[in-house]
Design a protein that fits this description.
It is a single chain. This protein is mainly alpha-helical and 343 residues long. The protein has one domain. Helices cover 74% and strands 0% of the residues. The chain has 16 helices and no strands. The protein is globular. The chain starts with a helix and ends with a helix. It holds the Pfam family ArsP_1.
């Protein structure tokens, strides 16, 4: 009798858990879009699908690499590589972040993998902040639309923001902040069953059944985690692009002085701002009276994050890390805008 009474409750709990998943939210959002605006439903789905397929290659690479390192036990080597070299890693992460062609969403799989492997949050934050800001193609497009001074200024701001964020997080970590930064993104193996510090990696992991099982478990769990949250992120991005034009958002931040720079960063952070589309858009707005400092602030804040990226990051890290990520992004954008305006 007890089983009969508990069974409906268990089913109800399972139904509630299913409704709370990102998959259910994606279905609900797309269903609402189909009902309220059936003419744009296909456009929204195609946009989100193409964006997810584009990022899928990065997700696949990151998850395969993470699963391989976990199966071989190489995360011990990764952890050792960061011991005593945190300062060097912050500098390298900020510098090489400028060469990585990742937007604020595409960089998330790599951030997840680095944190899961035990990389220090300070170095990860340096790469996290600098990578979405600039890369060689973006540099050329920005220079063509806004001139080389603006493009070089953005490149310098990208590295400077990465360094600032990395050393700021390092300072806070020394005060005891940001212990265990990940929220849900966990290794598939149970606590305590991973490799020990004196273990040696087994590069040909497929020769051992237990390691093959761990590789599959890591691949499925971590892959599904990133896939579901980035799928939701790109559905939100598709809605933003379709219903909230970037030029409408940017037009709010016209004028001179510090206040427009601050507003530009606050407005630019949640907005979707493609690094390839933004330079021509901002060039037109600057011709209409938008200050160079506000344009720089808006571009940096918009590249660092957006509502879709925030949704994915929120599911990945704990609230304090999330707040630091946003605070450093907005603060860095404001400082960069003010300095660029003064220069």
């Amino acid at each position: 009798m007890a089983e009969l009474t508990q069974h409906p409750k268990a089913m109800a709990r399972s139904a509630v858990d299913l409704i709370k998943t990102p998959w259910a939210l994606i279905v609900a959002i797309l269903a609402a879009a189909a009902i309220l605006d059936p003419g744009s439903w296909v456009e929204v789905v195609v946009f989100a699908g193409k964006a997810l397929m584009h990022t899928g290659q990065y997700i696949l690479f990151a998850v395969l690499l993470l699963s391989y390192l976990k199966a071989t036990g190489a995360e011990v080597m990764v952890a050792r590589a960061f011991e005593g070299r945190e300062t060097r890693m912050i500098f390298l992460a900020a510098l090489f972040g400028g060469l990585a062609p990742f937007c604020s969403c595409e960089v998330i799989p790599f951030i997840a993998g680095l944190l899961a492997l035990g990389a220090p949050l300070s170095a990860v934050m340096a790469f996290w902040l600098s990578s979405p800001l600039i890369d060689p193609p973006t540099l050329l497009i920005t220079a063509g639309a806004l001139g080389w001074p603006f493009a070089i200024g953005k490149a310098v701001a990208a590295v400077a923001l990465g360094l600032f964020g990395g050393f700021a997080v390092r300072l806070l970590m020394r005060q005891g902040a940001f212990a265990q930064p990940l929220r849900e993104y966990k290794p598939a193996g149970c606590c305590g069953c991973g490799p020990k510090q004196d273990d040696k990696p087994v590069w040909k992991f497929w020769q051992e059944p237990e390691r093959r099982v761990r590789f599959r478990a890591e691949f499925v769990q971590n892959g599904l985690f990133l896939l579901k949250w980035l799928a939701l992120a790109y559905v939100l991005e598709a809605l933003l692009v379709r219903y909230v034009p970037a030029d409408l958002i940017a037009s709010v931040v016209g004028g001179e002085g510090v206040l427009p720079i601050v507003i530009a960063a606050i407005v630019g952070m949640p907005a979707y701002l493609n690094s390839y589309v933004a330079p021509p858009l901002l060039a037109g707005l600057m011709d209409q009276g938008m200050s160079a400092g506000a344009a720089m602030s808006f571009m940096i804040a918009g590249a660092v994050s957006s509502i879709p990226a925030m949704a994915a990051v929120w599911s990945l890290v704990k609230p304090r890390v999330f707040a630091a990520y946003l605070g450093l992004g907005v603060g860095g954008a404001i400082v960069a805008g003010i300095l660029f305006q003064m220069i």
